[in-house]
Design a protein that fits this description.
The protein is mainly alpha-helical. The protein contains five helices and four strands, in the order ββββααααα. It has a domain of about 70 residues: Orthogonal Bundle (c-terminal domain of poly(a) binding protein). This is Polyadenylate-binding protein 4-like.
């Protein structure tokens, strides 16, 4: 399993908590969600990690593009988990990736519409 980065710490660089103490760990905080610590993510199977990240990304993306939030979240979940964590910590990074995903969706939609128009013209002329 890969190394997960959170607040510029690698999991292997985080100090081990001594027995009986609760050392605070860096965590990603999303309003209305349980904080996501790197150790929680690392302990989960890959599919569950994506689920945890998606549950935190979706509400943030929904505030930007409510009608495309599900599609964009799915697209972003294809990205490496360490980059997804960075996006959760950095609104600028998240907005940049969301804008990129919207551009891809718009280009795909435009290409699809153009193909349909070509098909309609071909059908009308035959």
């Amino acid at each position: 399993m890969g190394t997960f980065y959170l607040h510029a710490y690698r999991l292997s660089d985080m100090p081990a908590a001594s027995p009986g103490s609760q050392a605070p760990q860096p965590a990603v905080h999303v309003q209305g969600q349980e904080p996501l610590a790197a150790s929680m993510l690392a302990a989960a199977p890959l599919q569950e990690q994506k689920q945890m990240l998606g549950e935190r990304l979706f509400p943030l993306i929904q505030t930007m593009h409510s009608n495309l939030a599900g599609k964009i979240t799915g697209m972003l979940l294809e990205i490496d988990n360490s980059e997804l964590l960075h996006m959760l910590e950095s609104p600028e990074s998240l907005r940049s990736k969301v804008d990129e995903a919207v551009a891809v969706l718009q280009a795909h939609h435009a290409k699809k519409e153009a193909a349909q128009k070509v098909g309609a013209v071909a059908a009308a002329t035959s």
